[in-house]
């Protein structure tokens, strides 16, 4: 039996293990039990300390240095009561994953004993040796110092492992010179920038009660799960997260029988474990279902404040990975693990709200008459139009390049879908005051036993990268593996820019002068309406139409990243204090480097597999064919395989040459370009030969688990 066959027969006898006591561990009981949440804070902190801490958490003032020691003591007692032995400052450097270094609470007392100690300073500030995190040229590698600072807004939580517990403190991460080296700092800065401008607009509308405007995020997360025993036989999956080779399965997603289909026992067991684990961590996991592609799934949480929701999405991804292993599965969170079937994205549902809970993107029943809503809506439209290229750049990376623009994901052209109702209101407003709003209605199903359904005023559009969905926008083009901080940072900053422009205009008007407001909004609509598109974003016609409208269409990362280096981009990020020019430049540099590294790893992995797995299998098969009868059919196959073997060797060599040439480029941008235009096509050409061989070489000789196995056997 080959390793592939052994894995498949093991899958057939796989039984789901019971790991949860679901009667005891009801969601309401376990929710937040691993989090230093309000309940825990009240229990472990004296009342005045608790109150002051909440003020800071709610964004109403800086942290009072006087209370830090007391908070540290309280949170330590809480953690110890839960069995914690260590604490860590947890942060999100620009590697795309999270980072943590653990310290134990243990402190020797000099008499041969120890106590558990944790000071305010331990809570506030950490200093990881940071030399190996990407800094995009902000520092030389020998300049190692970096600091982490406690992000009070994101709750402290426990990482509970079978063998111990670590108290985990979400932090922000800066260099010795004070420059942001993480995803968190610019997000928080962009949040504040947007908040300031949004409040100015609200004040014009005589809202005097709101003290803050925040943004909310609800990221829907798509992912694949496949059996680990199969995945482990694929070096490409292990090293690059996607299959670099693989002939299409005769059955893929064409029957559409996976989408929302019944969830297999083994997957549901994973999902149930995941939900409970997330609930314990105070992450409001809400929705779970099968997605379009075979072996593809989705989870969505209830929305939260953006900084918290972004941290939570990192935790979701890492828990998915860990739990998948425990279930004998492998999580594939790459944007395109399998060619020819759908890839995975993240749909970032985004809205702005006051601290009082008013959703500024809620149109209400009569959007045409809701001037405040229209002002915010128009500001978002302008932001997305003016800064479309930046939003595109914010979601650009090697993985997402496989997805954007393909017939399954939003195109690389950034446009806005408003839906019938708002499209109509905006069209009216362009001409003058809007007079009416189209209404939803009722749906009668033709059988008296069935209920009358409420019909929304607007249908959905899943081909739009930025779609209005009722009372929020859905940024649908984000990659499944991406930390969501950066796209949200760019969006917040772009919207802050629009709100500022609007507030500057409003400052010149009397409050309540809705006639002049209408004129202002109408002018903004006229200047930005080219970004509105209600049709099919997948169609060729849209590409032509978008070109006619002069909308940017940056198809790849290499095309998209330069937008971040324009004068406009620099001025935008620095004027709102989100990123200095140096910080922005370092981020762009990291993006280029990351792109090159990913393509380089993929090319090397492809050559390795082709040379050491595919070529030997092909040679063995040719040997078998040569030893078989000299029938006409066998000779014909042999000749074909032999020709492909020649092509295989040639294309491995061609890929190696292309990779070598790319390495000689003078700048990282030139290298990235060489990878995009020379190496990727060479790798694709190699893939074509390998995939054809897969359809010819004897199944028992083929070394890689096949699509039909990975996608359907789990
Ligand atoms: P829909 O089906 O309209 O996309 P769902 O209820 O499925 O809406 O929500 C999808 C995601 O959007 C969830 O994470 C949800 O919590 C989030 N969401 C809902 N309302 C808002 C809002 N006002 N702001 C941000 N996210 C929201
Ligand atoms: Mg949705």
Explain the overall architecture.
The protein is globular and about 95 Å long. The strands form four sheets. Strands 9, 10, 11, 12, 13, 14, 15, 18 and 19 form a nine-stranded mixed sheet that branches. Strands 1, 2, 5, 6, 7 and 8 form a six-stranded mixed sheet that branches. The protein folds into three domains: 31-182, Roll (Ubiquitin-like (UB roll)); 190-244 and 257-439 and 451-579, Creatine Kinase, Chain A, domain 2, CATH 3.30.590.10; 595-712, Up-down Bundle (Four Helix Bundle (Hemerythrin (Met), subunit A)). The protein is of the alpha+beta class. Helix content is 46%, strand content 15%. The structure holds adenosine-5'-diphosphate and magnesium ion. Residues 216, 218, 220, 300-303, 349-351, 359, 469-472 line the site of adenosine-5'-diphosphate.
Termini separation comes to: 19 Å
Rg (CA only)? 28 Å
Count of DSSP strands: 19
Q: Provide the CATH topology of the largest domain.
A: Creatine Kinase, Chain A, domain 2
What small molecules does the structure contain?
adenosine-5'-diphosphate, magnesium ion
Shape: globular
The CATH fourth-level homologous superfamily of the largest domain = Glutamine synthetase/guanido kinase, catalytic domain
CATH class of the largest domain: Alpha Beta
| Unreliably modeled segments | none
How would a textbook summarize the main sheet?
A: 9 strands, mixed
Strand content: 5-15%
Give the helix tally. Answer: 23
Helical content, roughly?
A: 40-55%
